[in-house]
Amino acid sequence: MKAAAIENSRSRREELGQFLTATPVANFMASLFGPLPQTVRLLDAGAGAGSLTAAFVSRCCEKRDGVRAIEAILYEVDSEILDSLVATMRDSERLCSGAGIRFSFTIHQTDFIHEMSPRIAGDLFDALPPQFDAAIANPPYRKISTDSAVRRALRSIGVESTNLYTGFIALIQRLLVPGGQLVGITPRSFCNGPYFRPFREDFLSHMELRRLHLFESRKAAFRDDSVLQENIIFHAVKGRNQPRELTISSSSGEQGGNITETVFPFADIVHPNDAEKFIHIPSTASHATAKETMDGLNSSLASLGVTVSTGRVVDFRLKDALRKVPEHGTVPLLYPCHFNGGAVHWPKLEARKPNAILDSAQTRPWLVPSGVYLLTKRFTSKEERRRLVACLFDPDEVKAEWVGFENHLNYFHANGHGLERTLAVGLYAFLNSTVVDQYFRRFSGHTQVNATDLRTLAYPDRDTLQAMGRDMKTLDLSQDEIDQLVTKHLHARR
Ligand SMILES: C[S@@+](CC[C@H](N)C(=O)[O-])C[C@H]1O[C@@H](n2cnc3c(N)ncnc32)[C@H](O)[C@@H]1O
Q: Are residues 53 and 200 in the same domain?
């Protein structure tokens, strides 16, 4: 093709939001459908050359899990691609007839949004919206301006959408029967973009998210090299509550490439109290890496001369000795509320918890001599980014001879005394790293972190931890900075 023609076809495709799905990706998408009814009414909106319907048909023919008939309804506006689409449907017809599945298809060369919106709105007496048991979609991606006809059509059915793709998904969702399934590939932007909040709210209140899949490379999913969006595949089911758990997977997108899968509590993906309804997607590849990294570590806490214990002050047993405001004869008492980033903020007079405990013969057995201690929370809230939250108790910042650690904390110590500083800071970096957090999540489904869990974890050797400690010039590093520092030292020890 001449340069001008290539440019022309590219801008045409951009206008149509046309990016065709590569066959391995289409097959993977089709494989995500759960059990289907005997007769499947399938919707493919923005069908392009039909690769998604073809993959769906192949899946049914190969799996032979009870599907007897497929009625495919396809929408595509581009007249130039229609011949390819019809040819693909003829192939699907042949495949089905070989597998004993009845196949019919109807191609509508109409604008899906303009066609469906009035039917869903109930504006057309004689044209009720069709209903589908399954939909497979790679909708067109293009921004839609506030005053466009598309935007107005969507608004007429209560859908506020800034991009064609979310408009398509919002419509598709409305056309599914209860229990109907949708597998889609779209840009990832809807997961946290502020403009997509109405879409997320609408989608998450009508669809149960079952699976999310990410590609490690941006370009892998498409037959076109100009796709710069990060894409995501999702499988969702109409009209159920959100699941307790959700599988997140990732792959390179190449045929035969490995797929890494991890199951997460749904509350980790969409935080229950998040008004924005962000969809957080932890990288599963890094989960696998986390396991690999942790498996390579062979020091135990005991071999480092370090012990972890649960805070010894059980406050309700020592009620009379507790003080809100520190006074003569008291020593600091620390609760999780005193965690402030990586350091301790004490006293915290505005907090509901006491700040001090009397230092007496009765309380002394529950106190520890001041020193450098590493503290971790035993209970983290679901909203917290990490399960493992460590903070450093620095005797230079909180001056006292003795100190009390309350029972909602774990503290790392050397035989009842403080730790050597660089070791403690190294442990601080290690325990606050994403690698440890992800490893921890692999085996712990709940938000509680017991001393036993921390005792059984594998640790880097003392030299490596101390090197990490020396490298931490301040505790106040971002997650990325901590991760880079920890990874650098874990790799250096190999
Ligand atoms: C991202 S492509 C995907 C094509 C195909 N589903 C695939 O996965 O290979 C989106 C398709 O939607 C078509 N399209 C764009 N706007 C449309 C509209 N309003 N109604 C129907 N189809 C549309 C484009 O022509 C393009 O073929």
A: yes
User: Is residue 306 located within the same domain as residue 275?
Assistant: no
Nearest CA to ligand 1 atom 10: 140
- Work out how many domains the chain is built from and give that number: 2
Helix spans in 122-242 (H)? 149-155, 164-175, 197-206
Instruction: Extract the tokens encoding 260.
Output: 């890494």
Mean pLDDT across 436-448: 70
Give ligand 1 pocket residues (Cβ under 6 A). 16-21, 46-48, 51-52, 75-78, 81, 111-113, 138, 140
pTM, two decimal places: 0.65
Nearest Cα residue to atom 27 of ligand 1: 48
Is 189 found in the same domain as 338? no
pLDDT digits (tens, 9 = 90+) for 222-262: 545 444 457 899 999 998 688 888 898 887 666 667 787 88
Ligand 1 centre from 124 Cα, in Å? 25
Where among 282, 303, 330 does a domain terminate?
282
The rounded mean pLDDT for the chain is: 89
Rounded to 5, what percent of the chain is helix, strand, coil? 40, 25, 40
Distance CA 82, CA 51 (A): 13
User: What is the extent of the structural domain holding 410?
Assistant: 291-492
